[in-house]
Specification:
- A hairpin with a 5-residue loop joins strand 8 and strand 9 (about 155-160).
- The chain has three helices and 16 strands.
- The strands form four sheets. Strands 11-7-8-9-13-5-4-15 form an eight-stranded antiparallel β-sheet, with no helix packed on it. A three-stranded antiparallel β-sheet has the order 3-16-14, with no helix packed on it.
- It has two domains: about 20-55; about 70-220, Glucose Permease (Domain IIA).
- About 15% of the residues lie in helices and about 35% in strands.
- With about 220 residues, the chain is α+β, with helices and mostly antiparallel strands.
- Helix 1 packs antiparallel against helix 2.
- The chain has helices at about 20-35, 40-55, 135-140, and strands spanning about 5, 65, 70-75, 80-90, 95-105, 110, 115-125, 145-150, 155-160, 170, 180, 185-190, 190-200, 205, 210, 220.
- The radius of gyration is 18 Å and the shape is globular.
């Protein structure tokens, strides 16, 4: 039977919301309140709906993480859109396996660390905002890459890629940080994509079209 653990202290609220989303929630609630006080009922009702939608988008549920030592978990909620063996010089320096997860507007957008290890560097690249599920997105879109070295010496890189609607990449992780599998490390506002670069010898555990959850779904084993 697979075992799980908590990578972080669970929230004490019934519906946790990511801190980055609080300004959006408060702004929507304030505008709604103004229209309600002015007696403009129809717009106030729309404001209530919009406020709840924003709360839903920025939801940040706690996740349990599988404890299997070699497990690599998904960094994002969403759909696996690519699994491919490639030659990459930008994020891996040679042959590797790339797994891409696309997040729709309905998915949780908080991103989580794939494996235990040390953050070697974080590289931000400005760019375009084309649809994240297109082939050119990993080369041309705004993105942020986290380079990780595991205790066993394996190199892993996970890349936050902005999309057509997403216009803000958030990353809290810094070089030198010791991170745990399943920890929150950032988010992308309003839909996008995460690419994970793994050693070519990894044993993948997902297929194209699978739905995965950040921190909980095992996407590969890095032996």
């Amino acid at each position: 039977m697979e075992q799980f653990s908590w990578p972080e202290q669970p929230n004490r609220t019934a519906f946790p919301i990511a801190r980055a989303g609080l300004p959006f929630v408060f702004a929507a609630a304030f505008v709604t309140l103004v229209f309600a006080l002015l007696g403009i009922t129809a717009i106030a009702v729309v404001g209530v709906i919009v406020t709840f939608c924003i709360c839903g988008f920025f939801r940040d549920p706690d996740r349990v993480v599988p404890t299997a030592e070699d497990a690599v978990v998904s960094p994002a909620d969403g759909k696996v859109i690519k699994i491919e063996a490639i030659e990459d010089r930008r994020y891996y320096g040679g042959p590797c396996t790339r797994i891409s997860v696309f997040m729709s507007l309905l998915n949780v957008h908080v991103n989580r660390v794939c494996q235990d290890g040390t953050v070697k560097k974080v590289v931000y690249q400005p760019g375009k905002f084309v649809a994240a599920d297109r082939d050119g997105a990993p080369q041309n879109n705004e993105q942020n890459a986290v380079f990780l070295e595991t205790a066993a010496g394996a190199q892993i890189c996970f890349v936050q890629i902005a999309g057509l609607v997403a216009r803000r990449i958030i990353c809290w992780t810094q070089p030198g940080d010791q991170v745990k599998r399943g920890e929150r490390f950032g988010m992308i506002c309003f839909g996008s994509r995460l690419d994970v670069y793994l050693p070519p010898s990894v044993e993948t555990r997902v297929q194209k079209g699978d739905r995965v959850r950040a921190g909980s779904s095992v996407i590969a084993f890095c032996r």
